[in-house]
Amino acid sequence: MKKRIFAIALALTMVLGLTVTAHAAPAPAIGTINVNGTGSIAADPDMAMVQLGARTFGTTAAEAIGENVVIIDAIIEALLALGIEEESIQTSSYSMWPETEWRVIDARTQLTGPVHVGFSVTHTLTITINDIDLIGYVLTAAAEAGSNQNSGINFLVRDNSALYHEAMQLAIKDAIARAEVAAAALGVELGAPIAFTESVGWFDPFWGGTGGLFARAGMVAEMSLDSTIGVQVGQVGVTANVSITFEFAR
């Protein structure tokens, strides 16, 4: 009976010993690896913001302001007629400054210098376009109403949070892949992540026309366009950046 109990105890000791060996603690961490990851997603924009307006000149400030008011009022009226909501039209900048020209100021000596000739006024509107198909019509209507400045088009995605989350997942996967490559090259075992930092993501609208459009005051006001201005919408890019620190062991 004693021999049987001893045999059972020995068997249990061997099993427990094997169990302890199978679940031995991993080697202690001896350092860290820090990697960065980037993820990008492209999507079709569903809205846009356009900046356009008018620049006018007058020999007096009142003349320059008055001409500018006429053009801006005409632009707003044209946009409202297209169905753009009034709250989607906002003044983003307004400025006035004196204009000078370099002229001869002394005929006898031919001395030249700056001479005040008038004033210039610039009024810029930012228009939010919720119907992407209206962009060309907005640009055309504004030009026909007298707009002679265009600062560009910013294409956007209305609900970009889901896109950003997807981009962040890709950024995390990219960081893990980089960490695995680094660990393999160093001949160490990659451990668990111990720190995570998310950088501010960015949305690249692939600007559709950042080049400014300027024409002499009055020139565009007299222009009648035979067709609607064509706009290539393209896609917008959403990017996320992360930084992850992993432990590693031999």
Notable features of this structure?
alpha+beta, three-stranded antiparallel β-sheet, 250 residues
Task: Explain the overall architecture.
A five-stranded antiparallel sheet has the order 3-4-2-5-7. Strands 1-8-6 form a three-stranded antiparallel sheet. It has a domain of 134 residues: Alpha-Beta Plaits. Helix 2 packs antiparallel against helix 3. The protein is an alpha+beta fold. The protein has four helices and eight strands. Helices cover 32% and strands 41% of the residues. It is elongated.
In the CATH classification, which architecture of the domain at 46-157 and 206-227 applies?
Answer: 2-Layer Sandwich
Structural class: alpha+beta
Q: What is the CATH first-level class name of the domain at 46-157 and 206-227?
A: Alpha Beta
End-to-end separation? 49 Å
Question: Helix amount, in percent?
Answer: 25-40%
Total number of beta strands:
8
What is the CATH superfamily label of the domain at 46-157 and 206-227? Protein of unknown function (DUF541), domain 2
Uncertain residue segments: 5-22, 206-225
Strand arrangement, largest sheet? 3-4-2-5-7
Query: What can be said about the biggest beta sheet?
Result: 5 strands, antiparallel
User: What Rg do the Cα atoms give?
Assistant: 34 Å
CATH topology of the domain at 46-157 and 206-227: Alpha-Beta Plaits
Average pLDDT taken over every residue = 82
- Give the number of helices: 4
Oligomer: single chain
The amount of beta strand, in percent, is 35-45%
